[in-house]
Amino acid sequence: MKKLFFIVLIALGFFACRNTTVTDNKSLIVSHVNKDASCPYFTKTAQGLPVVSWIETDSAAETGMMYYAVFDSGSLNFNAPIAIPTSAGVVPHDENLPKILFKPDNVVIAVFGVETNDVRNKYAGKVLYTQSTDGGKTWQEAIPLVNDTAGYDQRYFDVALLHNGDGAVVWLDNRKTTSDEGSSLYYAQARGEEGFRNERRIATRICQCCRTRLYVTPQGDIHTVYRAILNDSIRDMVHQLSTDGGNVFSDPVRISADNWVVRGCPHTGPTLTSNSEGLHFAWFTMGNGQGAFYCRSTDQGKTYTKKQSLSDAPMAKHPQIASIQDNLLLVWDEPVAYKQSFNSRIGFQVRKPDGTIFNKGVLTDSTTYSSYPVIGSHGSTALVAYKQIKDGKGEIVVKTVKAD
Asked: Which InterPro entries match (predicted)?
């Protein structure tokens, strides 16, 4: 049970439980002062060290640059921020997060979105990526993920490291085989220093502006979840699986029959993780209930448990889930009343390996505006990063707690 104590400390900030030490009893701000920071994201180096990345802009700028900081396991702190110069021009968008992938061959790939203002779609964007072949010391010029001239809109991507050391990416793309509303889901892999190659469509009729999720289990299976458009108007979450390294993906299976009929884009997408008890999912919906929900599957996504609400707040959204030494940590943001208006705070749940709730609460209070949480880890150390608004500017905050 001591593995579960870490979340209690995150929530309280100063309270120490038996066999648990607080490594940082204050919020650590990793972004630069006087910059507007957004889009926190967690990944790991090839050596397994946590990395938090984000975007920073000047006050008047509409585009920015990616930064990242690597966790120091000795000091239990993050090192100074490192800029990725060839990411200049990235558009800050907390749904369309820029992301970094560290491969074991010393290649690092940073993926990010830019605007295109294409005449075929004024809201269109493109996904670019830049590579470093020396572990992040120098970076190549950014290039488009898609070179096909028919592909004028790519957004809402996710990346993952495959068991063979290749990088993988999924994204939403305008290229499709139907005139029906929605985007297609594409998949590609990056081997060596070649960059992403062999793109192919693996699904159609996807909600055009919701996050996608790509996840690789410890066994090497590749999973993806996203919000699909079903029966012309229902926008529910579906899951696909590849057991052969990404060559073939299963047909999409809906994880919950929410039957949310909406003629628009909810933005907030799904998330998943795995542990010894199967696959675990979290997502936002306003169908058959409203807010953020959880379910799990013990048969590789063939069947799913009935969904469970994560919060009493009806607009809890942007859920994230991760396995911390087989237990489950879920975080999300939710509105909270403050004075004569509302702020946003970060809520959490800790669940046992089988999904049973062990603890729940909030990580931030009502006096600050905190949103878009993400989860990282280092052994039994849980890392929760989020965007906090202070004096009208965003800053990236990380809270760190270690369970011995």
From this structure: Sialidase_sf
